[in-house]
Amino acid sequence: MALLPEVDKRKTINNVRDFFDNEFPRIMNMADISYIDLKSPTISDMPSSPSYGNSSDEKFSNHTQAVTYLEAVVAAVKNMTQPHRHFMELRYLQHKSWLQIEELTGYSSRRGMEVIEEAFLLFADRFSDTYELRTMVQD
Question: Among 8, 14, 40, 120, which one is most buried in terms of CB atoms within 10 A?
Answer without folding.
Answer: 120
